[in-house]
């Protein structure tokens, strides 16, 4: 009996120890469990990425709206500084010049025929005296001389006009509505030129764009700083293949570069990229 009792006591002791050890393991598991979950990489990652993820979702169509701003910034950063602000001065219906502006331009005018002769350049000029701004006159002589040497007969028909000349031009035409009002013409700067050729009877007509002289202007005009002004409708003026404006060789090259990229459509839009007075 005594032996049975001591066996039972030993068994109870074993069970007690087993329960104690078991509950110790259980308790340590409970304590260790949550710590492991908090420290686990998955939980940490979710906590870290959640705010970023929310930000991305909240952005309203991020690809479309900022694009024009980016393009303008790129263009402005790469624009050349004009040697003379007059080269990028817009003159049109919305940017007319006054008598004071024209009076100042007059002080910088040069007789084209005399200037070209002095430089030994061959230039065909319809109206003498034709006057141009001194900034453009050397390249103008160079352009006409190069045309002559190449066998084309590019002829200067009209250059600087003052306000009175522009009024006169309106009176002489059958379509006065198509001729700009005094103050609205690029000719007031002394940097705009009308060219023609013998094969169109020295007239200013759209057929000029089928002549070798026009082809010469398109191929080489920019090398001397000249670009066609009215390539698209501007101020209601139809395309004028005879009317070219002087930007100078560097800006002319830059303009054609931006035009080829579709950033500007004509010289007016190019000039608008620069600060205006
Ligand atoms: Zn013109």
From TrEMBL:
- Residues covered by the D-alanyl-D-alanine carboxypeptidase-like core domain: 133-248
* Gene Ontology BP annotations: proteolysis
Record keywords? Carboxypeptidase, Hydrolase, Protease
| Highest taxon listed in the record's lineage | Bacteria
Query: Which GO MF terms does the UniProt record name?
Result: carboxypeptidase activity
InterPro entries xrefs: DD-CPase-like (IPR052179), VanY-like_core_dom (IPR003709), VanY/YodJ_core_dom (IPR058193), Zn_M74/Hedgehog-like (IPR009045)
Which is a Pfam family this sequence falls into? VanY
Q: What is this protein called?
A: D-alanyl-D-alanine carboxypeptidase family protein
**What is the native source organism of this protein?**
Candidatus Collierbacteria bacterium GW2011_GWC2_44_18
């Amino acid at each position: 009996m005594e032996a049975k009792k001591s066996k039972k006591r030993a068994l109870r002791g074993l069970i007690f120890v087993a329960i104690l050890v078991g509950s110790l393991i259980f308790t340590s598991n409970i304590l260790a469990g949550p710590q492991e979950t908090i420290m686990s990489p998955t939980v940490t990652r979710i906590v870290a990425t959640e705010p970023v993820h929310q930000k991305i979702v909240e952005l309203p169509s991020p690809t479309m709206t900022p694009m024009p701003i980016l393009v303008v910034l790129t263009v402005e950063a790469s624009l050349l500084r004009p040697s003379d602000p007059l080269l990028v001065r817009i003159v049109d219906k919305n940017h007319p010049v006054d008598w004071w502006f024209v009076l100042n331009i007059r002080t910088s005018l040069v007789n084209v025929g005399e200037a070209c002769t002095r430089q030994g350049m061959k230039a065909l000029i319809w109206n003498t005296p034709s006057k141009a701004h001194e900034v453009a006159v050397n390249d103008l002589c160079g352009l006409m001389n190069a045309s002559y040497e190449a066998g084309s007969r590019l002829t200067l028909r009209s250059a600087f006009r003052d306000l009175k000349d522009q009024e006169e031009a309106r009176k002489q035409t059958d379509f006065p509505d198509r001729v700009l009002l005094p103050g609205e013409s690029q000719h007031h700067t002394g940097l705009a030129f009308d060219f023609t050729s013998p094969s169109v009877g020295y007239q200013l007509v759209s057929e000029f764009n089928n002549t070798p002289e026009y082809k010469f202007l398109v191929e080489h005009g920019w090398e001397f700083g000249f670009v066609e002004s009215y390539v698209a409708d501007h101020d209601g003026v139809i395309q004028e293949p005879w009317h070219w404006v002087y930007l100078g060789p560097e800006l002319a090259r830059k303009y054609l570069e931006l035009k080829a990229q579709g950033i500007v459509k004509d010289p007016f839009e190019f000039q608008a990229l620069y600060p205006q007075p």
